[in-house]
Amino acid sequence: MLEKLISRFSKPDRITRGKAIEIDPALLLQRPPRRIDQRAARRLLIGKRVLITGAGGTIGSELARQVAAFEPAHLTLLDNSEFNLYQIDLEMREAGYASLITSQLVDICRREHLDRAFTEARPEIVLHAAAFKHVPIVEQNRCAGALVNVLGAKNVFDAATETGAESVVFISTDKAVNPTSFMGATKRIAELYAQALDVAQNDTRFVTVRFGNVLGSTGSVTPLFARQIARGGPVTVTHPEISRYFMTTREAVQLVLQAASLDSAEKSVVTHDGRVFVLDMGEPVRILELAKRMIEAHGLTPGVDIEIRFTGLRSGEKLFEEIFLDTDKLVKTGADGVLLASPAMIDLPLLNPRLSDVIEHALAGDQSGLDEAVHHLVPEFSPTEAGGEAAKQRPLQR
């Protein structure tokens, strides 16, 4: 596979230092793309009113593309970035979906604005992709991160429940498992609230879907490496042993929709149990190897034409990500690439006051109080150890 990747881009007239070339992200994984049966997703979405938060982001925009193809009754796109919303709105209109979509500039932290959007849309299916996801940035801006990832998620989930949505799919991350980053801890708190709401009522189903890094997404290493190679290097890798789980954007979204449709299909026989689906992302990829493959794909030699420089783990960063805990019982779902985990839950009456503490400290800009409140809810997260030796020593879980 690597030889094919190199040969595809090794013609002299295509290799020019200072000019980035387009590389198929799937080839970098050195595995074939998954074949995913989307008939169940079509049955879930056809004729339904669907709302997507974070619709201008990498995952949100791909959700919009795939959902639109399944003939929903209406598709509401929410984002707080004017430019991102403009881009996906324009793309959808040019693709012939102008009569299908409504695009709204909404900050999910503003409950009154969010309520208005939900009241107008009356969504039956809600896909919650909006979040702050960049680990170092959220680490340095914890109050802002908690507002979007915790308060924002709570607002979306509450609005969906109050307007009678059938299903809410929360898109989480492998960084929510044994989180060493503040971002991961906030996503775990949102998972806890989705689970608690699912168990506490019988009208709106809440499903959480976890997956890892998406090749080519905003903030991912592949666009960074491409820019660094185009400049002639160096390519920066934080640690020689660091590895991550990767999927293509299309794969990730197809599996998200498949997980959602699995839950819908089983709705009549399965009680509300706060289920968390884990996407099987194959074997983890060493970032150093990924960097070498990208350099070679440009017809260059790592360490000769392009230097690889190690910069050290960043705050909140793990050497290895985990997609489930040792205590989780993974159950096969019958769908290729989708597993069902059983993480611990907190009942809603116990969760609500702790959740309120997190939100109050975030609103007040009180980072020390926020750290304590987050640690109280997610004890495995230690604000003082983010990116430290404890994170480095954790073994890889499969």
Describe this structure in words.
It holds the Pfam family Polysacc_synt_2. Belongs to the polysaccharide synthase family. There is one protein chain. With about 400 residues, the chain is an alpha/beta fold. About 45% of the residues lie in helices and about 15% in strands. The protein contains 15 helices and 15 strands. A nine-stranded mixed β-sheet has the order 3-2-1-4-5-6-11-15-14, with helices on both faces. A two-stranded parallel sheet has the order 7-10. Strands 8-13 form a two-stranded parallel ribbon. Helix 8 packs across helix 13. The chain is globular and about 60 Å long. The relative contact order is 0.15.
Feature tags:
alpha/beta; nine-stranded mixed beta sheet; two-stranded parallel sheet; disordered N terminus; Rossmann fold; globular; 15% strand; 15 helices
Unreliable stretches:
1-16, 265-270, 387-398
SSE sequence, one letter per element: HHHEHEHEHEHHEHEEHEEEHEEHEEEHHH
| Rg for CA atoms | 21 Å
Total strand segments:
15
Q: In CATH terms, what is the fold-level topology? A: Rossmann fold
> What is the CA–CA distance across the termini?
24 Å
**Largest sheet entry:** 9 strands, mixed
Q: Hey, roughly how much beta strand do the residues contain?
A: 5-15%
Number of helices: 15
Task: Find the structural class using helix and strand composition.
Answer: alpha/beta
CATH class wording: Alpha Beta
Name the overall outline: globular
Name of the CATH superfamily:
NAD(P)-binding Rossmann-like Domain
**Average pLDDT metric:** 83
Strand order of the largest sheet: 3-2-1-4-5-6-11-15-14
Q: Kindly state the percentage of residues in helix.
A: 40-55%
Supply the CATH architecture: 3-Layer(aba) Sandwich
Number of domains: 1
